[in-house]
């Protein structure tokens, strides 16, 4: 079914003027032009527009978007997985900013103390920028994104667990004095491994490096330590134990 430029503007929220501009710079050409000179779009162009909007949501320049989606190696399904990873990074940062705001309000009311590090938690979007850089480098050097679904042995679908909820559950066990090697903790770490595997390609070695990043990199450490002041170190211990126990199966 063909769509006019007005139809696409209404469906996508992108202005007619912008769609015409995308045509002019060869970013998004219509499927064809009618005898009357009107632009007509089909599903292929709508899918491409969706990719463009995802990239724009991550503040990528149009020139970079044009370069990536025009490559013969551009893989739409894998790109969508990476969009998801980047957007989750952005969501996590916004969650951290909300927590910072809530803590600041509580501090002003005299209800809690607030360290200077906590006061500025979430303002650095360096992690998202690194993901964007990685995305561009993967297309430049490898031509394709390297992602895969979660492992068969641990299902990410179980209970819909994801990073923030997992972190809170693990923090509760930490607060209760449960040790990293405990079965309850390791079961949650199994979900965490599945979540990480679902987001991007990982190996036991890569998972161990991620565990180190949680402690050694400020962006990660401050995010988890806002949930519990010892959570980053606790996660690292638990993740390394998980690798030792399951290395033959992951």
Helix and strand topology:
Elements lengths: L2 E2 H8 L3 H9 L7 E2 L5 E3 L1 H15 L4 H8 L6 H33 L7 H4 L6 H16 L21 H13 L7 H17 L4 H13 L1 H10 L3 H16 L4
Antiparallel strand pairs: 1-3, 2-3
Helix pairs in contact: 3-5, 5-7, 8-9, 9-12, 10-11, 10-12
How would you sum up this structure, described in words?
This protein is mainly α. Helices cover about 65% and strands about 5% of the residues. The protein has helices at about 5-10, 15-25, 45-55, 60-70, 75-110, 115-120, 125-140, 165-175, 185-200, 205-215, 220-225, 230-245; strands at about 5, 30-35, 40. Helix 5 (about 75-110) packs antiparallel against helix 7 and helix 8 runs antiparallel to helix 9. About 25% of the residues are buried.
Features:
3% strand; 12 helices; 250 residues; 3-stranded antiparallel beta sheet; mainly alpha
Hey, roughly how much beta strand do the residues contain?
under 5%
The helix/strand class is mainly alpha
Helix fraction bin: 55-70%
Strand order of the largest sheet: 1-3-2
Number of helices: 12
Shape: elongated
Q: How would a textbook summarize the main sheet?
A: 3 strands, antiparallel
Question: What's the N-to-C terminus distance?
Answer: 45 Å
State the total count of DSSP E strands: 3
Radius of gyration: 22 Å
Report the average pLDDT across residues: 77
Low-confidence stretches: 139-161
Strand-and-helix sequence, N→C? EHHEEHHHHHHHHHH
